Design the sequence.
């Protein structure tokens, strides 16, 4: 048993209120993955009217903003991250009028709305790419993409050795013999960001959505748009799943296709576009770069407002490692006056309730299926709740992925013949891909499809035991994951934790993460023995029910987090 003396607080990691003001500095932002959130039409695929119908859930949960993954016109070769028309809604998801209604309803409920922008590549069905295919090598139509002649006497070898992030070569040959670059699927050709028309077009797209009233953009592959001159060979391995842990020693994604200095000119220009609009609008970078000092360059004062902190997501369930990444995150962000972000799950990674139930807790397989190690569901959920309370106790902006407020795990036994992620096909099944974290949400325990759609149809099957996770099975149930998130968000707001500070609390073992944020002491016990709280501590919230020892001291058991207020 560990004894504690949580006062005095000594090691300041991040000062309260530094700097404060704009909404995005401390916002809790909820990711809606439209095809799996709520389906109003009954075709089994979520849609914008479905989102609108459930916005009250998000207001009740207590988040500040919503980020929607792509709903634009798209052949859905990569679930909408292959955009054919950036200015229209795909009929699968509804219409522009549905978008406007959704936005109006969200704003009416006090929720900001961020949309996804996919500028690294278009769909192969985009009018520009169709024109490029119809035109000759060397034509202006081809110049908007990265078409090159092949190597070898007959040009039958790709122009360089780059791999697609989804597996296989990053080049595809067209009938006239040229090749085009695609860092992702062959149906996602990369744009050439040296081309002025490309730059002008995306500034116009930003304005199109800003004119409709959006509050910001999540920028897909923000580190990938500019490639090193000459597209040199590179023997490293590109990945957005493996990424890195953000440490100075990490080695992820340093190839000539990523994190080139020139990319920052684009964000300076976009910063100026957003500044033309009233209110605070935000750009958030999806940039799998390391170390954190490189990531920080995306959020310098004249660039983007936020960058996803994947270093935090990538860190295993290990107290010293988490403390180190938390500290490094504040050091890096504070050096440029940007907020830190926190994120544990999204539509590209195994959900944290499943990752944390693996033998190496927090490790990141690209999907889990039949024959793979199956997570310990109960342990994973227990740790996920502890991790979420740890995250939500930290100042900065936090991202939640739809369903994590229900404690949802991945679908870890999805049949391979139902999989849709191009990464599964392009790796010949070696990687299961991301379908397991994209399964339609359970809203109602007793309805077909758990209330996801009026017909009960769901584009991916939901595991039979998901009734227990349904919103209506948890709403109003004390101690449920949903009510725990709701309480955490309410307390975070009332105690102003989002703009607070972090000071490590002394007197705890190495495997306990303990810090104060304003008047709240957060204690996350990642060790194997219970931790006793300081005498007189008032428990505000805990990820599990806390016990008492014989002396009446409150104990935080293993794999649990408590938020407490200290006496005096
Ligand atoms: C990152 C997105 O989050 C992911 O879902 C997508 O497949 C790739 N970028 C390509 O757009």
Sequence:
């Amino acid at each position: 048993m560990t004894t504690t003396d949580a006062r005095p607080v000594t090691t300041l990691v991040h000062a309260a209120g530094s700097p404060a003001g704009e909404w995005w500095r401390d916002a809790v932002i909820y990711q809606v993955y439209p095809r799996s959130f709520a389906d109003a039409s009954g075709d089994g695929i979520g849609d914008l009217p479905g989102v609108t119908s459930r916005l009250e859930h998000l207001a009740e949960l207590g988040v500040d903003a919503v980020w929607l993954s792509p709903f634009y016109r798209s052949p859905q070769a990569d679930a909408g991250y292959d955009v054919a028309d950036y200015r229209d809604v795909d009929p699968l998801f509804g219409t522009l009028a549905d978008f406007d209604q959704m936005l109006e309803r969200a704003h009416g409920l006090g929720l900001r709305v961020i949309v996804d922008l996919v500028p690294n590549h278009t769909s192969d069905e985009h009018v520009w790419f169709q024109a490029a295919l119809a035109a000759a090598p060397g034509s202006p139509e081809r110049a908007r993409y990265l078409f090159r002649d092949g190597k070898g006497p007959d040009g039958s070898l790709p122009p360089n050795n780059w791999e697609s992030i989804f597996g296989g070569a990053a080049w595809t040959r067209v009938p006239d013999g040229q090749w085009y670059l695609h860092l992702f699927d062959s149906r996602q050709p990369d744009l050439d960001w040296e081309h002025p028309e490309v730059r002008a077009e995306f500034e116009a797209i930003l304005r199109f959505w800003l004119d409709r009233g959006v509050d910001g953009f999540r920028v897909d592959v923000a580190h990938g748009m500019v490639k090193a001159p000459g597209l040199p060979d590179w023997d490293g391995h590109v990945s957005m799943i493996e990424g890195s842990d953000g440490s100075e020693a990490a080695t992820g994604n340093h190839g000539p296709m990523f994190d080139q200095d020139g990319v920052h000119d684009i964000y300076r220009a976009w910063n100026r576009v957003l500044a033309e609009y009233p209110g605070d609008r935000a750009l958030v970078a999806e940039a799998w770069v390391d170390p954190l000092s490189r990531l920080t360059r995306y959020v310098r004062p004249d660039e983007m407002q936020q960058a996803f902190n994947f270093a935090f997501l990538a860190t295993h369930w290990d107290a010293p490692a988490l403390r180190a990444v938390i500290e490094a995150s504040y050091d890096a962000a504070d050096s440029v006056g940007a907020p830190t972000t926190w994120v544990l799950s999204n539509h590209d990674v195994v959900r944290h309730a499943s990752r944390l139930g693996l033998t190496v807790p927090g490790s990141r397989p690209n999907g889990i299926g039949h024959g793979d190690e199956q997570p310990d569901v109960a342990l994973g959920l227990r740790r996920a709740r502890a991790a979420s309370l740890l995250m939500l106790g930290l100042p900065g902006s936090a991202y939640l992925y739809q369903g994590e407020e229900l404690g949802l795990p991945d679908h870890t036994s999805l049949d391979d013949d139902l999989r849709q992620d191009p990464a599964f096909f392009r790796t010949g099944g070696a990687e299961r891909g991301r379908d397991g974290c994209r399964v339609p949400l359970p809203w109602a325990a007793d309805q077909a499809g758990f209330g996801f759609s009026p017909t009960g149809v769901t584009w991916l099957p939901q595991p039979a035991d998901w009734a227990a996770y349904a919103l209506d099975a948890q709403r109003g149930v004390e101690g449920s994951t949903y009510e725990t998130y709701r309480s955490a968000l309410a307390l975070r707001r009332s105690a102003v934790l989002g703009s607070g500070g972090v000071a490590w609390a002394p007197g705890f073992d190495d495997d306990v993460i303990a810090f104060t944020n304003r008047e709240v002491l957060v204690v996350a016990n990642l060790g194997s023995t219970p931790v006793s709280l300081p005498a007189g501590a008032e428990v505000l919230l805990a990820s599990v029910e806390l016990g008492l020892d014989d002396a009446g001291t409150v104990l935080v058991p293993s794999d649990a987090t408590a938020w407490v207020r200290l006496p005096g």
About this structure: The first helix runs from residue 48 to 61. The radius of gyration is 23 Å. The longest strand covers residues 112-117.
